Porin OmpC
Amino acid sequence: MKRKVLAILVPALLVAGAANAAEMYNKNGNKVDIYGKVDARHTFSDNPGDDGDETIIELGFKGETQITNDLTGFGNALMKVKASDTEGSDNMYAKLAFAGLRYTDAGSFDYGRNYGVVYDVEAWTDMLPVFGGDSYTWTDNFMTGRANGVATYRNTDFFGLVEGWNFALQYQGNNEGSNTGEDQEGTKNGHDDVRFQNGDGFGISTTYDFGDVLEGLSVGAAFSSSDRTNEQAIAGGIDNRYSKSAGGSEADAWTVGMKYDANNVYLAMMYAETRNMTPYGDSGIANKTQNFEAVAQYQFDFGLRPSLAWVYSKGKDLGGYNHWNGQYHETDYTDKTLVNYISVAATYYFNKNMSAYVDYKINMLDNDADFYKDNGISTDDVVGVGLTYQF
């Protein structure tokens, strides 16, 4: 019986992101839970940037307060500390920090540092122990991952009228960076790396769970569009054939996906395209990417969860590519695969709080191609192993 309970519980924990939040306070309509984990991880690779200790600590809290019978206030904060550097290093930062209000079937509204709505679909394939979810998703890259200054409205079961139909609307304020010399006002929460700046943007996502009709099956789609900052557009240049930074005044992303999660089986896949937003290598921004991810997992009753996944991204019309035309080097556009690997992994859950894992990333990029060497893109395999305590 214990093994069957674990097989049912583990998939729910993977979706929830916290194994079993500990209740700190629950009285008079106010509730506070604390959650977190210690992930003791080491990765092995011939690439120095992927080889070494990657131990981290995460600690967060979720709170709710009952304002009226129908109105609830809530907040969520999650901090992360990299424990793989020397003491005194600046390795602590906020992954999440948002607060909001929820009014019964009318939905919820929150503001702060939160996930972009495009990640609503990407999250279905971002289920691997170490790798995954990185064909086009970067933190602080518009609304594809965790992002600053996002106002999000969410509605479940379409105002209580259609069970399983959820949707979200999101607005992100500009994060332009402090450089005002490029005819932009600038903001205090921008970034000096133009790849992680953004102008005002809007996003939408929708998912549908077929419920009892097709148990475990869900489909989803998401879209976002944002202004690019002046620095980003200037970095791309008028003829960005000579630049690794994309041109254009807007950055767009769209994705569709589906998942099956029932009977101890988990299957998910997604397809996405981006325009003028996706970083690659040391300094590049792709004019366009085409991305695909697929993952298959099975939860055994005794705690083992093997996993097989494929993650792929094709960059289109990448600028700044030098090639030899027989007499001299010529700069032109090129299409290159930016991400291409297979993940073979397994996690063993001792119980709801303790697990061990191994994840082998089989890198299928061409290790002889000058493009990857010139852009600082690793073509080496990586193996990650770890032990996690979570609560």
Summary: The longest strand covers residues 304-324. The chain has one domain: 2-390. The chain has a mean pLDDT of 88. The domain at 2-390 is CATH 2.40.160.10 (Porin).
